[in-house]
Amino acid sequence: MSEHASATSSGPGGAPPADELMLVITREFQAPITRVWSALTDPDQAPAWWGPRGFHTPRQSVDSDFEIGGLYRACLVQDSTGEEHWWSGVHTDIEPPNLLVFTHAWDKADGTRGFETEVTFQLDEIDGGTRVTFIQGPFDTIDNRDAHGAGWRESFDRLAEHLRRSP
Description:
Blueprint: E1 2-4, E2 23-29, H1 33-41, H2 46-49, E3 55-56, E4 63-64, E5 71-78, E6 84-95, E7 99-106, E8 117-126, E9 129-137, H3 142-165
Antiparallel strand pairs: 1-2, 2-9, 3-5, 4-5, 5-6, 6-7, 7-8, 8-9
């Protein structure tokens, strides 16, 4: 697994440059591309791997209209407190089994959507498995980019475990 955030110079007004606000994670899974695609897109598999350790995504919280322009919404529940974190977005590109793109925003307490990013999963067949290139951003801050990176890395660890367990 590797992570990349390029450029270190400041953008306009001292803000980080746009490419520095992008999260890029590349991960290789020892599973065929069709199994990885299925795990990424099948709501019934979401509870097995969505979210970092210490959180879970109840299947009944996942609502997805899996088509371009289709909406999705789901909830991440913190195991120790039961606190719910809802997120939602729109599927903007779906090219099975290689490309999945959607918007992502956390819901605020008042029911409005928070800062929105774009998420891309690019899947490529490699010898013996699948390489997933994950891109999310641009984020509003480097701290938010880094926090999402930590969560996604743990989710991908859980995805690898799920793929090893499932046929």
